[in-house]
Structures are given as C-alpha cells and as structure tokens.
C-alpha cells in the first residue's frame, strides 16, 4: 500500500471511531457514574394534592414551585434544626434559580412548640399539615432512620427522598440538575 492510501484510511478511522464508540455505548445502555442521583428516586412518583395539605405557618403549597420538604419528626431536636438549616443553605446555593424553590415542613398533626420555634427561627419555611403517616408508608426505604428530606416537583409529584444522614451537597446537585432540565416551575 502506498503512503497516501494509509493516510486516507487513518483519517477515515479517526473520524468514524467516535461514532462507532458512541453507538456501542448507546446500544450497551452505558451511563456515566456522575449522572447518578444522590437520593432515592420515588418510582412511581407519589402525587401530593395541594388540597390535602393546609398551611399552618405561612401559606399552603404554592403551585408551580419546586419544594424542598422535611418530613417532620414529632419533636424538633438538634438533628431537625440542623436539617432546617441545611434546607436553607441548599436553597440559597441555587443562585438565580432559588426563586423557583420553596421550603416546607410536612407534619401529620399540630406541630410541636419546638418545631414551630425552629421553623420561625430559620424563616421563610412553611409548615403544612396533611396525611404524612400514609405518605411515609408509600415511600421507598431511604436508608437508616427512614426518609427525612424530599424533593417535590411543581406538579405535586414526590420525586426523591433522602435519609436522616443525607449529604447536603448531593441534595444540592440533584436539585440543581432538576431545576436546570425542568421547564416547569
């Protein structure tokens, strides 16, 4: 073979190789590790009707907004206060997308004084009362301690849950990705 033919074959291989590799990865259903979510995906999503929840502190659910929600314990201890603070920090790191996110605490009964006090201290967090017990029964196992934090889409679908010992940077990345690719809310 002459030199010119080898150059032509080399150019063809160089330009065709990325397409062949991409096709093989697509057919093999390969996904990069970094695209994995950090929370537990609720599949199928649980629909939370706004009519089921009423606002005890602040307004009820605002349609068209993403919600970062804490599934409240009976009493608000240090872990609960820390979760409320982390929710505030996660929302604030969304920069210009922060206006698309609301924070809420979901309770089954009248909130305890410690919970109400902690929520008022953090500010801009709402307390919604509704069927929390039945909601917990439908959620997937999120890990030790059960689900503590949830992301709810603007249509009221419970999308993801996080355990007691969630990684705040993971929640931030999941919420950031959802806000980036969502055209609703």
Structural topology:
Elements: H1 3-27, E1 40-47, E2 54-57, E3 66-71, H2 78-92, E4 101-107, H3 113-122, E5 125-129, H4 132-138, E6 147-152, E7 157-163, H5 168-181
Parallel strand pairs: 3-4, 4-5
Antiparallel strand pairs: 1-7, 2-5, 3-6, 6-7
Helix pairs in contact: 2-3, 2-5
Précis, in short:
The protein has helices at 3-27, 78-92, 113-122, 132-138, 168-181; strands spanning 40-47, 54-57, 66-71, 101-107, 125-129, 147-152, 157-163. The chain is an alpha/beta fold. Helix 2 links the parallel strand 3 and strand 4 (101-107).
Structural account:
The protein is of the alpha/beta class and 185 residues long. It has two domains: 30 residues; 146 residues, Glutaredoxin, CATH 3.40.30.10. Helices cover 38% and strands 23% of the residues. It has five helices and seven strands, in the order H-E-E-E-H-E-H-E-H-E-E-H. Strands 1-7-6-3-4-5-2 form a seven-stranded mixed β-sheet, with helices on both faces. The model has no long low-confidence stretch (mean pLDDT 86).
């Amino acid at each position: 073979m002459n030199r010119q033919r080898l150059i032509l074959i080399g150019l063809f291989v160089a330009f065709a190789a990325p397409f062949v590799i991409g096709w093989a990865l697509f057919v093999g259903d390969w996904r990069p590790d970094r695209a994995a979510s950090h929370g537990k995906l609720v599949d199928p999503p649980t629909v939370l009707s706004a009519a089921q929840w009423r606002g005890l502190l602040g307004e009820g659910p605002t349609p068209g907004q993403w919600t970062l929600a804490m599934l409240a314990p009976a009493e608000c201890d240090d872990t609960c206060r820390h979760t409320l603070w982390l929710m505030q920090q996660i929302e604030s790191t969304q920069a210009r997308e922060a206006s698309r996110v609301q924070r809420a605490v979901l309770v089954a009964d009248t909130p305890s004084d410690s919970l109400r006090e902690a929520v008022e201290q953090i500010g801009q967090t709402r307390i919604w009362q509704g069927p929390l017990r039945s909601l917990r029964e439908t959620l997937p196992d999120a890990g030790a301690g059960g689900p503590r934090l949830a992301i709810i889409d603007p249509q009221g679908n419970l999308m993801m849950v996080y355990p007691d010992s969630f990684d705040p940077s993971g929640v931030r990345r999941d919420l950031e990705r959802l806000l980036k690719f969502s055209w609703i809310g």
